[in-house]
Each structure stands twice: as structure tokens, then as C-alpha cells.
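Example 3.2
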Amino acid sequence: MAKGRNQPLWYEMYGPPEFSVKGICSVPVTRGRLEGQFECVQVGDGGIYLQLEVPDVPEEMLVGPMGTGFEPMGEVTGSTSRGKPFVAKPLGIVSNTTNLGRRGSHLTACYVLGEAAVSEQDAASSISEYGLTNLVFTPNHQRWIGYRLLNTMRLELPSGLITIAPRRDYKQIEDRIRGRGVCSVTCSAKTRIGDEAVDEVCALLGLGQGSFVNWIWRDDYESRRRVRRVMVDRITRPFGGMPLLPVRLPGVIPQFVCQCLSAYRERLVQYRLGPIIRLICQARYGRYSDLETRGVTLAIVLEILSLAHSRERGTELRMPPGDYKAGVSTWRPLVRNALESAYGRRSDIDSMLGSIVSGLNRTPFATRLRAMAEDFKLPSESMELGAQVRNVVNTRNELIHVGRFRSKDPAGTLNEFFGLMEFTDRLVLKILDYSGPYMGWDGNNIVPKKLP
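Structure, written as C-alpha cells:
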């Protein structure tokens, strides 16, 4: 795309599109079916947009309120300007404009897509290449291709090999995403292991560098010929965040992924590690002036993890439900009388009573967190584990119930926030069976430490 004054707004944010294709397509809409020329574009954060130009809209489709009736109702089908099949799944309509003229009505509609694909007819593939967003490239392997030395990141996994290489303009892309805090594809990964395994690797890559990583497009190849391009609107985040691991040390990130992948797969569902990693990356991104919001995010992470752990151990409740229900019958009337004395005979007394009664049988957060830290053998540093847990619990309670840290001065607030972050980081790393270097807080600065 040539540079000029009439560039779309997304061009300034993301640079040239990741992929752009033109052709003719048909879109089923609420008032019938639209057919016309299209341009489909995927931008750096994974968003996919289709602009459709319909030169002569049938009159019956223009009946009704202006600007309505063109919402997508099914799959978009068509062919590119090179005659290749094009298929897309629309999520909704962004805008539409109808211009009435002497020769008829011209419609311009813009749709947001969840997925789009350009492929050969019945094409098989043997290897795929994925576009990875926001990955900071740290090579651990070199090989000569002719007279050129190629640096790559090699991940040798039980399911197969992944080879990650930077894009040719990697340095310019890295400068843009760091300077503007946006999202863009920085590297590509070639492998035969499939989408699900690449998802798992992306999650660990993002956790290690503290900035969420995901793939947004996939090219399928057969005998070095691209037979399919699939674009997917997937969860992405702006670049930024403090690394959880010392990413600039050679080999740390590849070693982390290979070491932790088995534990990640084993505990993915139980501990909801997908959302947990996104929350951790979100808490690592932002300004110091927004520490309260980031601290609440970390508190949510600990709540989810400790609840999942207690359910797995069967300790979510203090007593078996049957025993507890039998005991409640003796003192439930006393609680009801106390509530009626305090609030009067209100219609919601029963719901208040039910909430109090059920809550009394739940294991407290502090107990759950302490048990989890002990089970995963979380090492203590400057203070014993019980004191660490008490500090974290006190900070969490203040954030959740009051919306602020306990400390009133900036230095104390920083200590509380980074203490909460490091405790969460170390706990998650232990869940992943990791041992090795990580970035921790020494009371004044973020410094490299080692988790045994």
C-alpha cells in the first residue's frame, strides 16, 4: 500500500496490513443477499475487516429504516482477483453508507470478521507457518543459508519441532510496538504440530516475557508452495509489560517453554491457566499511577488459583455438606432472629440468611492460599512462608474491599505491589514445575533471582 494522506487510521497504528486480498463475494444479510467487489484486510492486532462495494442495490433492499437491513446472516463466499476461493465468517457490521444517484444506489459496507481463508481447491498441506504477535525474539540457534547466517529460536518439544524466526523488518516493528504500545506480528513459527500445540506454546512465551503472545494467521504449505492462508481474529494485547523471566539471557525463554509445557498441559483446565496467563500479563502492563487496578487483577489471580487448588484437594468446604446442614438446623433460627432484630421483617431475610449460612462453611482465602503455597513447596526468602502469606492476604483484602493499598506513601505502595506480584509469579511458576532464573523484587528494584 502506497503511503499518502488518504491512508486508513489503522495504517498509522499498525503499519502495512498483515494481509490484504481483493475479489468478488456474496454476503447474506437480513434483507437478502449482497454481491459486489470486496477488499479484506487483517491488521496487526489480528482484527479482520471486509469492505464491500455494491454498485447497484436492489430497490426492495432499501425499504425500511436507513442504515439497517445489511447485518450479516451467514458465511461470506467468493473468489479473489486471482480466482482462488475466499470464505469468511462475519461477526457484525461496522458501518454502511448508501449513496443515491441517477444510475441507482451504491452501497459501501464494512464488516468485521472472525475468520477468513484463501485457499486452493482441495489442497493438502504438510507444514504450517504462524504469525506471532508481540514476541520478543531471543535466538538460541544459528545456521548458515548460503552466505547468510540465520538466527532462530528452536523449541524441541515431545510433539515436534517449532522453528521461530524474526520478520525481515523486525527491528522497525519492535521499535514501533515498544514506542506506541500497540500489537503487531514480530515473528513467524514453522511447525507440523498443529494449532492447539501452537496455542500452548504462545501462552508460555507470553507468560515468560510478560507481554501476551498469540498467533493471528496461518499459512499452510505443500512442497514449499503456499496453498492456504487462514486469518483469525484472536485475543491479543498491546505490547508492554515487565518480563517475568530475564528474556535477554540466551536460551532462557526456549528452556522455560520446553521445561513447563507438560505441566501446563496437565494443569491447564484445573487451574484455568489460559485466563490466568492473560490476567498476569495484564497486571504487568500499565503505569505506576494505576497500581491499584493492577493489584486487584493479581488478587483475582490468587483467588482463582487457590479455589481451584482447594477443589482439587477436596478442602473447599470446612465440613461435608450433609454434616454441615445437620448442624445448621440447631443455630439457623438464632441467626434469623438476629437478622430480623437488626433489619426488621424484610422480604430478603431468607436470601441474606442463605448467604451467611453457606459462607460460613467455605474455607477462608488465607487458609486456601497457605495450603497451596505449602503443597507446591513455595520457597521462603527474607521471611518465613506464613508471614509472606499474611502480607499478601492483608494487601489483597485492602485492595478488594477498599480499593487501595495499605501503605500511604509511594515507596510503601511499590513494595506492596511488587511483593504481591512476585508472590503470584513464583506460585504460577511452581504450578508449571519451573526452576531457574526469574525477575523479582529486592525492595528497591526488579532484579534477576533464581527459583529452586
